[in-house]
């Protein structure tokens, strides 16, 4: 089964445009499965992938800050209960486009959405084929600094990092502005300049290792 899953994701990464392009209405697919496929394929140009990416970014747009990919909402395991004559690519596609999407709705809530420990992929995704899931990093950047009248550098850094575990489980940990990738617009913090910077920065690598990122200032 692990080999079948790897084969399915690899095939999806190569030909995801044809997979999603055949689905007419953007609402006809499971949004987290679409995010999984489109992210793996480098966000190819199509209406479903455009919608999947918008949900991916919407989830990190305050408030609240959610996991951008909620892989536990994509029923991948169920796809492999299909008849044997279906190829792995067809089975993964069936799982992806079986239901209407669960859209994130921005509403007042705690800044960081905590995820239960049992929320993870319903199949084994520990292999290299799913490294692109674990490549996703979400930095909630809250950094400020200034120099006081005595010449001391006063710094406040409450940056947090959201990342994915082996099975797609998501968790928040403490981080720092120094760990934020260079692609961010965060000013140089090596000198005590006056800075008041808040953003959510997400980056990832697709199935082929290509780098991508988005940043939302607030």
Molecular structure report:
The protein has 218 residues and is of the alpha+beta class. 27% of the residues lie in helices and 20% in strands. Strands 1, 2, 3, 4, 5 and 6 form a six-stranded antiparallel β-sheet that branches. A hairpin with a 5-residue loop joins strand 1 (137-147) and strand 2 (153-157). Helix 1 crosses helix 5 (88-96) and helix 2 (31-40) crosses helix 3. The protein starts with a helix and ends with a strand. The relative contact order is 0.17.
Number of strands: 6
Average pLDDT, all residues: 79
How far the N terminus sits from the C terminus, by CA atoms, comes to 44 Å
Radius of gyration: 19 Å
The major sheet is characterized as: 6 strands, antiparallel
Number of continuous helical runs: 6
Order of helices and strands: HHHHHHEEEEEE
- Uncertain spans, ≥5 residues at pLDDT below 50? 1-28, 79-92, 95-110
Shape: elongated
Q: In terms of structural class, how would the helical and strand content be classed?
A: alpha+beta
* Percent range of helical residues: 25-40%
Strand content: 15-25%
């Amino acid at each position: 089964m692990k080999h079948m899953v790897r084969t399915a994701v690899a095939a999806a990464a190569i030909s995801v445009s044809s997979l999603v392009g055949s689905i007419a209405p953007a609402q006809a697919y499971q949004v987290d499965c679409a995010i999984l496929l489109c992210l793996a394929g480098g966000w190819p140009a199509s209406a479903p992938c455009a919608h999947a990416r918008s949900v991916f970014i919407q989830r990190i747009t305050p408030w609240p800050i959610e996991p951008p990919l909620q892989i536990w909402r994509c029923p991948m395991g169920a796809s492999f209960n299909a008849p044997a004559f279906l190829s792995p690519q067809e089975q993964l596609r069936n799982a992806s486009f079986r239901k209407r999407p669960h859209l994130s709705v921005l509403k007042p809530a705690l800044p960081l959405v905590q995820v239960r420990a049992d929320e993870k992929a319903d199949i084994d995704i520990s292999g290299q084929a799913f490294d692109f899931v674990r490549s996703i990093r979400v930095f909630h950047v809250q950094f400020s600094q200034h120099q006081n009248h005595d010449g001391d550098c006063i710094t406040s850094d409450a940056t947090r990092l959201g990342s994915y575990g082996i099975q797609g489980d998501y968790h928040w940990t403490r981080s720092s502005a120094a760990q934020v990738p260079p692609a961010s617009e965060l000013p140089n913090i090596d000198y005590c300049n006056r800075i008041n910077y808040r953003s959510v920065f997400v980056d990832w690598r697709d199935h082929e290792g290509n780098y991508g990122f988005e940043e939302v200032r607030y």
